[in-house]
């Protein structure tokens, strides 16, 4: 679909790395590989805020016969060196360590989260809050903090992030009373989970969330099933947003009728409409290494989100090469739109996405689209 208001609002050129948490730590030049996958919320003053994943990478990662990775260690940032004959560097976002019996990788960048305040319509930058970054502070985040999602439940803002380390690939929770100043709470999911999205509201006094556990083995559905085996969007509940129990019924599953959802995961925190919970999510069509990422939507029952009222197979948002054409010299990935935030704006929603793992995209989507 196409929408009248659909543009990039923030990208690598908008970041001052002299104010990065990494500044002054490394004896090597870094640059912004991507400023993307922004969480979105509305602040008490009416402005919007996005929480941008800044992937900060080495300008020259390969030297002296080694490829280098950035790692947080006891309050500092350091470089690790890997001999080139021990790694596979086919994917620009990471490199694989050869020789093991399972897949082990390191990242070509380290990510941290930058809060950026926008105008109420999300189309102008008001303030870049370099004084309020969400950055690694513990060993379970030593390879970075990625892909924030923000939900407002009652008078409290909840932020989930993906924390990356050799110890675990876990989901961590931060809370705020004003949407800008965040307090670390704890690890809330210990298993690999890329997209934890807390519903913007309680159901029977309990918190609900969409999750997406990762794995290398999935069991098939029987022949003729409407579903396809593979990564799916699961559900969990909690009494306090800290202690989560998987819900026994499935959530959103890949459909056998389309390859566009051969892989899928959560996008925006579900918000309540008069028709049910609106959930925007991503489906991935296989192509080369990364695939083609598109945004789709579903409506879930307001009392039991495991009941899917409607799923639309026509993409809501698709990657748009015209948006990134002015950034062509910075492109390292294509065919990706990754929607990560939504805010009510009256007759339309403001939707925030990452475009090409490079920049932040803002789209105004009329509510009538979901009728």
Automatic annotation (TrEMBL):
Hydrolase in keyword set: yes
Keyword terms of this UniProt record: Glycosidase, Glycosyltransferase, Hydrolase, Transferase
A GO molecular-function annotation: glycosyltransferase activity
Superkingdom, taxonomy of origin: Bacteria
Listed name of the protein: Glycosidase
Provenance organism: Sphingomonas psychrotolerans
Alphabetized Gene3D superfamilies for the sequence: Glycosyl hydrolase domain, family 43 (2.115.10.20)
Protein family according to the UniProt entry: Belongs to the glycosyl hydrolase 130 family.
Signal peptide stretch: none
